[in-house]
Protein: Copper amine oxidase-like N-terminal domain-containing protein
Amino acid sequence: MELFIIQEGELVKKLWISILAGLLVFPMLLQSPAQADAPIKIVIDGVPLPTDQPPISVRGRTLVPLRAIFEAFDATTTWDKQTKTVTATKEDTTIVLKLGSTLATINNKPVILDVPGQSLKGRTLVPTRFVSEALGQEVVWNSKARTVSITTSGGKGGSVSPASNVVLQDVSDSGDGRDLQVSFVRAADESIVDHYRVLIVKAGNTLNLSSAQQIAPSNYSTVLSIGANPAFKLNAGSRDISGELIKVNQPYIAYVLAVGKGNNTSALSNSSATLTLVNNIVSAPTNIQVNDVGDNGDGRDLSVSFNKLPDESKVNSYRIFVVKAANYTNFNVAAANAVSSSNYTQVSKTGNNLSQVLASGSRDIDGALIKSGVSYRVFVMAVDSRNASNQVLSPASSAITLSTTGISSFIVSDVNDYGDGRDMKVSFVHPTAEANINQYRIMVVPTAYYSGFSVSEANNVSNSNYTAVSTSGSSTNQILTSSTRDVRGNLIKNGTGYQVYVLSVGSNSSANVLSSASSVITLLTDFSMGAVSNLTVSDVSDNGDGRDMKVSFTHAVDERYISKYLIMVVPTSYYSNFSVSEANRISSSNYTAVSTSENSTSQILNSSSRDVRGNWIKEGTTYKVYVLSVGSGNYSGSNVLSQASSDITLSSKTPVVSVTNVTYQVNDSRILARFTKSSNETNISEYRVLVVPAKQGFGLGDAIGVTASSYNSIIPNGTNPVITASTIDVNGSPIIKGKKYKLYILAVANNKGTQNGGLSDSTEEFEL
Structure:
């Protein structure tokens, strides 16, 4: 059942012609000659009623469009598809009309229609005369003017006074109707005002009462005639009277139409002053300064300062973007708005110029952790929370490359079984800038006494309780001595948990820098942790994910203290090397665990496998693979990392397409082969002509195994080739008269193919 509910009328709501919902499906076989004349108009109490389907004349009776009448009066109708019946209700009156019938009822009393309703161009039309008879309204047909005039009961009433003091204001920066607010003073007497219509008109155009009353409902906004003088804010979908969405940089004026109740005439206000909507753009921060303020090798080394905006009324916060200097010319507002929230630093607005030291986990806009040795430029944007399109990006800062006096690639391992300091090896890479470093001090800290170890504590350690290392060379690999002591003065020994720190010593103690702690190490006799060997990686499939990668390795010789192996896929673009300390920090979702069962592993990864940075393994990215041997029991935490595999870049491979239409031609003792080249030659290195004894079985594997002396070949050149066959068959025997042969063409794959080649169908048998 279809339900039509009419909520808003025009001047004459008492005339609810809509009650007569004909919806009568009539095949439109009758088409009056009058329809060729000017369209028939409808006028209600002197006001034209616009319709998209004009009335028509059928057998001397005028039929009017049902929907247009509905929109003019408050009425409710329901349509029953099964019985093809329309029921109309208005207050205490009910009318029922059935399709194809001239009989209708008004409050259950029968009424005869002269002409049944009919459907024309998707609009239902009903006889106007029935409106007059049903509701007692005066309906007059003017044949000369071709006009149906309807006069409501009681005729015209009073005149509504117009709204006044219409004012337009720009109240927002959304770039649409939400920016526009209309205020006005209501009519002096609202007792005869049904509602107001706010009409937005492009400046330079004028509006009169007649044209204002004919504007479509979708192109004005309605304000009820209750309450105080309104300040009415439009919405994003609001349109001007021409149907165009309201927008910035367009001058407008506004009118207000006061719509009279019943038969009271409407009134149109004077226009407002002209207003052009303009978005107020947020200013760009200025004076962007960057400084290297630490030696942590991460975001804590970078300080960013800038001048706050003079007017922060439209600013919600500021965003700091760190961009690799090589790419900064491509960074603009659109790119800034697209950066993930994890890849910029948000700063709350304050009353002062801002200076922000970034955090250790701060990343550049590409998602890479900020680190020393990389050149960056910094941008700052003031964030307008209401409209991102208003935001403006600051100029780029000067370039900055963070340096550090701290060490890197810090590893501590158990290398012997003396039961003293000779079992401990300390390795680290020196910083690139050592001009202000006098020496390094290796400090062994017993974990039972220190939950943390600070630079001030390190500065106070006696020189007998650390190991000094010079700055010569680019790295240190130091095995401690038998007399080495921890920072509390005790000799280093088995069974004690230690963490090791390295103090970079400057010209004065205030310039000293302490490294992060190593992993906990407990020296043990009969050290049995070992790395895997024979690590190989291969591309085995074409799924475009981890299923393409096969990792094979031989397990450690002694697995008594190894709980499992972790396969770690490392993108080479982010790691020039990969250490055991980095491996120990990798999330469990970013490696593949393998048990210690069997002597070796040959593991194809799965579709959900990720690299150590958390990204899906995929084609086109170059990786190295490492395997971490994870210690158990007394060796828990004493993990061992394998050597890196060779680089591997997964690639898509496509099968070789065999040639077609192979034919032969025997010319004296020569055999010529002709064929249609493969449809895709991108992965074909050559074509080979193979002459095979007719009774010999022959397949792709046989074809690939034929020695070079037993075939002739040609390099693909994009044309259909002709090749002279070899004078010997694929077995190396001379081709002789009186013996039957077949001819095959082998398309040989280059390294892009998943097959070794594609073998054609054979020709028919032939002989010399």
Q: What stands out?
A: Confidence is low (pLDDT under 50) at residues 1-36. The radius of gyration is 45 Å. The chain has six domains: 2-151, 164-276, 286-401, 408-522, 533-649, 660-759. DSSP finds seven helices and 52 strands in the chain.
